[in-house]
């Protein structure tokens, strides 16, 4: 009926007023003008019928009807449309009280026309148990007034009793039907609210996951590029200082050139990390060319002999797969330079005819026990990168036997 509900007592099963969602509130408000128009039509119809009948006490009866209409305009609309419990109960008290007076004055029962509006209003404004009690009390009181007024109006006591029972049954049936509609609508509204809250929570979780993923991506990129580049700069700066102490200006110039190139690469990588573009080593280069440049740089910095080996016919890979291979090579070469104590190392890139593309970094250094060695962020990052593109990463090493890092990515 486009209405609201007051706060229910514990004995009432009706949901509390205000528990409906904004969508349900909007639906109620959108129907208010039709409800107001219907009740206004009932008031006008009652007035017209009373005037046409011209029965006694016309002025008093018309005054009662008009006061009911005014009470609805002042309090009833607020009790229904704005969900004001006090205004709603005040209106019902005035309306039902005047209905009893009308029944005492109206021998023809014309005032019953207004009950087509009052009954639904009562069920809509009050909680179910309270509404049922109000309707029963009002009908019984009106029936008692009609019985008391029977000798004057000529109404038969049996007829009054039968009509009262019929009205009682009809009003309760109608009220329970209205209450059920309101309950179902409120339940649907709460379900929609729950869905909206769940969607909001999922959206927040996805945003948080996206932020965490972006942080992890940036952390991996910084570790695999900037941190290693800065390590190279520090190493080269120390080598430059030693060359200066020896007076080897040629070595100083070479180290300064490498420092400049490494710093430029780091600057490029920093910009690309922010923009999430292709790594600087792959800009305008093939993967094999980028790997050769990395190996040459590590050899120049460390003095170790490094080689690049390409097996099979090179194919164009997705950009994210090439990034995984390049970053794994960078991580492997960083470990070779800092920890291996090797004299030689190799980076091999294998293109299988019908299988995955594999990159392997090997060295003849001191090796380590992968089971005993705590995995650093770089190895964990390499594993995560490979997994993201459907590949896999593993480490094979043992003390005194060098190490081998291998990553495979699908074509």
From TrEMBL:
Q: Reply yes or no: does the keyword Iron-sulfur apply.
A: yes
Region (Disordered), start-end ranges? 1-22
Cofactor(s) needed, names only, are: [4Fe-4S] cluster
State the reactions this protein catalyses.
ATP + protein L-histidine = ADP + protein N-phospho-L-histidine
Name all Histidine kinase domain ranges: 217-411
Which positions, given as ranges, span the membrane?
34-51, 58-75, 95-119, 131-148, 160-178
- Give the UniProt keywords, A-Z: 4Fe-4S, Cytoplasm, Iron, Iron-sulfur, Kinase, Membrane, Metal-binding, Transferase, Transmembrane, Transmembrane helix, Two-component regulatory system
Localization in the cell: Cytoplasm
Q: Could you give one GO CC term from the UniProt record?
A: membrane
Q: What is its EC number?
A: 2.7.13.3
Molecular function terms, GO-annotated:
4 iron, 4 sulfur cluster binding; metal ion binding; phosphorelay sensor kinase activity; protein dimerization activity
Q: What does this protein do?
A: Member of the two-component regulatory system NreB/NreC involved in the control of dissimilatory nitrate/nitrite reduction in response to oxygen. NreB functions as a direct oxygen sensor histidine kinase which is autophosphorylated, in the absence of oxygen, probably at the conserved histidine residue, and transfers its phosphate group probably to a conserved aspartate residue of NreC. NreB/NreC activates the expression of the nitrate (narGHJI) and nitrite (nir) reductase operons, as well as the putative nitrate transporter gene narT.
Name used for this protein in its record? Oxygen sensor histidine kinase NreB
